[in-house]
């Protein structure tokens, strides 16, 4: 830099910083009124035009040589701060070169790039050498502001010496003196060198109060030398505020006013008309996101001196931080034919951006005005020197009109809008003759402004959200419950009707204080009006903040009372119309009465989600709930188990069938006292009928209150016996049809047999949740087990041994008689320990003892029921299921009860231990091993002695199937003996069979064996051999071919003799009745205990009843046929 340039640069910078107002630089120009109509030559002036005195520029000096400034090496810096880079700063400004005490001084500088910079601080030195540091007070984007109030004791001259800052963690400093910047200001006095009359050094650039131009400190010399800064980056403190708030401000200037009425015609004053147009324009702009100020709102003038009046108008815009100044006028001309609208905007001199902005705005406003039918006079600039107008903004001259010129000096885009001609009667009548016509002009101006500046309607985003969600909720009356618990709703505290009454959460009580009318406005916003008070939901103070209180208040149409209802998750959120980030919230997400409702920033929790339910009468709500849930559970029979422990279920105490019997929780036992039949009525209500008692689940006394008891009662059709089954958590809630806020509840949540069942307010705990399991009767369960396990064990003959295989199931004493006990006994492999297994069609197993022919029989279906042998009955007490347990041990389950199994009493594995039934407990006393003997069951022998397996009816059917004409005999007898059986005491086959059954039972002989032997020996009572019918000898006793055999006195005696003879062969026991068998003592006692051995040829002992081959086997075959009848 040339050495002669340095003082000049310092001087120029000092000059920039010393400029206080534009009045020091320019004289006042004429008012902004347009005086010339185009193309008409005449023009009328409404104010005196005054040209400002031109200020000459300083002659530029051209350096003749450059002087290199040597750079000295600095010693290593010990301090933490390092010398910074001046390229970081774009410009720096001082707001007030001279300020009075108690006023605020502001400093602003701009960063080229704000990223990484922080901790800004200025060092300021007073003329006495004392210094202090001033930290930044605000930063917006790349702008940094410092502010300080100076008091009277601080009078003096000050210099800003150093800027300190931190960049990416490293501290730096810049000395303004190194940048050849002498930044000074004074408090209650001017500083040395201050000159308020200094001219503007940079023609066409802008300097005004509070502005210092430093577009690039490294190029300052070049800018000063060249005398003009190219597109200078200037910033006033007002502009800083405008930038910081992010809003836009427009200043509307109604032309003239007060003593200056402007043009007049047809009884109207321009000043009145422009004020109304401006007011209508402002009213329309109020709908948009823009701040609007006016230079006047009444018929006043800011100054009686014309030039000062214009400056003061622009000052209003400046102080408001306005970006645009729009001066509203009505044109006038001597030629009454002059017509149309025109708009004036700035030329490019001094600031191309302002001109460009003004041109765009002028076009938009003119378009709207001509759309009303006004003649298009165009948009234009007007030059100061010769007053010429042009549609081309390129000009080096100053602007003609003072308000445009002064606005440009304040870095504000200024326009003059001439709407039409007051002097033109046609235009006056069409555009100015009424308030409605003036309103259309004001609206046209506003539309142009909106279009040019791209303004959005106020709250455009949130308005859009309201419109988008306007159909989410229909108008109507609602209750608003929290999604955390639908039994708690929004409520006006104490049912108050006063303004300011608090909105709280409270348990639903069906009062009008908990009902809200929903209504929508034209934009889609919702208002909630309390039905009782008629007041609306209101945000206290209209202050949007976390924990802002919600109250009721008289409707005032403000946004504090407007809301947006939007679906969110499983419910709704209620959004404030003031800020879409804030919603209605339950304080602390805690459910209890009196809990406060507040505004809070959205966080997506259920504390901010609501059920909004159309209000209906209590009865209708209950009925609707029943209908809504009628398909939740199907009709059928169920166990109703606790969700807390599925091993426990609802149970009627002691399986009672009485009215009032208590309903309790009890360990599952599969009984019908724990089975409930679910049925729905036509409305969808559920009735629970206990299967065992036939009684209904009933709310005691039909009273809904916490702890009220549940019992069973005869059906009466009341709501005390009706319920609604509703999904709840992991199970179902059983809701009272009297009051849906009460549900079936396990008292104290205690899971144990005997715990009481009651109703209680719904609280969504597991104590109120139930699981419905389809009830399977024990018969169905046993049938299922039998079917599932029918292939587990094949038919055949087995030893059934305990897990200790040295012991087996055994018929005590090898008895052949029914009722004989079954025991455990050491394995001896006798027939008393052999059991023939057969399966029925369902898969059940029957165990027939080979020795006795009797069947394993259960004496009951409870613990300790005895097990014995009995003749076949085909009842379930003789049916069993063989199944594996979880460890592959065989269990034998009784078909009477799926939970009880064959068990060795007390687990005593020893001879004579009783066999019983007992609840399955997985002990060794209940584990069995089956040892296969053979599968040819037919090879087993048939006992003569034992309990009869047949019935009298079976014997009658057997006889009738093989013969006819009872008590008539073969033709060879020529009817000689017909009727002899009747004479002998058996007039029918039924009587005859009954006598056989009775006599056989007395002696312990199986009736089916004796009866079929009689049929074999007599040819089904037709005779024809050696024995005659009237001998009453039914088995050929004593007949040898030459002798007819024994004779008996009647039918009974003949049958008794036969049975006693069979007992002689089959048993060693004595006779019960007196012996009538003449050959009883001739028999080798016990030599033929099996029917098959009655034939001598088949008897291993060489004894027997008859000599014919297969005699005994023939009888067995006949027995098998009989037993199937």
What does this 3D model show about the protein?
The chain has 1125 residues and is α+β, with helices and mostly antiparallel strands. The protein contains 18 helices and 56 strands. Strands 21, 22, 23, 24, 25, 26, 27, 30, 31 and 32 form a 10-stranded antiparallel β-sheet that branches. Strands 1, 3, 5, 6, 9, 10 and 11 form a 7-stranded mixed β-sheet that branches. A 7-stranded mixed β-sheet has the order 15-12-16-20-17-18-19, with helices on both faces. Helix 15 runs parallel beside helix 17 (1051-1066). The longest helix has 20 residues, at 352-371. The radius of gyration is 59 Å and the shape is rod-shaped.
| General shape | rod-shaped
Give average pLDDT, whole number. Answer: 86
State Rg.
59 Å
Largest sheet: 10 strands, antiparallel
Low-confidence stretches: 1-79, 197-246
Q: β content, as a range?
A: 25-35%
Judged by helices, strands and strand pairing, the structural class is: alpha+beta
List its salient traits:
1125 residues; alpha+beta; 10-stranded antiparallel β-sheet; 7-stranded mixed β-sheet; 56 strands; 27% strand; rod-shaped; disordered N terminus
Helix and strand arrangement:
Elements: H1 5-18, E1 82-83, E2 89-94, E3 98-99, E4 103-111, E5 117-126, E6 131-135, E7 138-140, E8 143-150, E9 156-167, E10 170-175, E11 183-187, H2 220-226, H3 237-245, E12 249-254, E13 264-265, E14 268-269, H4 270-285, E15 291-294, H5 306-319, E16 324-331, E17 341-344, H6 352-371, E18 376-382, E19 389-390, H7 402-409, E20 413-421, H8 425-432, H9 435-453, H10 460-468, E21 476-482, E22 485-492, E23 503-507, E24 516-520, E25 526-530, E26 536-539, E27 548-553, E28 563-568, E29 571-576, E30 582-586, E31 595-601, E32 610-614, H11 618-628, E33 636-642, E34 648-652, E35 663-667, E36 676-680, E37 686-690, E38 696-699, E39 708-713, E40 723-728, E41 731-736, E42 742-746, E43 757-761, E44 770-774, H12 778-789, E45 796-802, E46 807-811, E47 822-826, E48 834-839, E49 845-849, E50 855-858, E51 867-870, E52 880-884, E53 890-894, E54 900-904, E55 915-919, E56 928-934, H13 952-962, H14 980-983, H15 989-1003, H16 1007-1018, H17 1051-1066, H18 1111-1122
Parallel strand pairs: 1-10, 3-11, 12-15, 12-16, 16-20, 17-18
Antiparallel strand pairs: 2-4, 4-8, 5-6, 5-9, 7-8, 9-10, 9-11, 13-14, 17-20, 18-19, 21-22, 21-24, 21-32, 22-23, 23-31, 24-25, 26-27, 27-31, 28-29, 30-31, 33-36, 33-44, 34-35, 36-37, 38-39, 39-43, 40-41, 42-43, 45-48, 45-56, 46-47, 48-49, 50-51, 52-53, 54-55
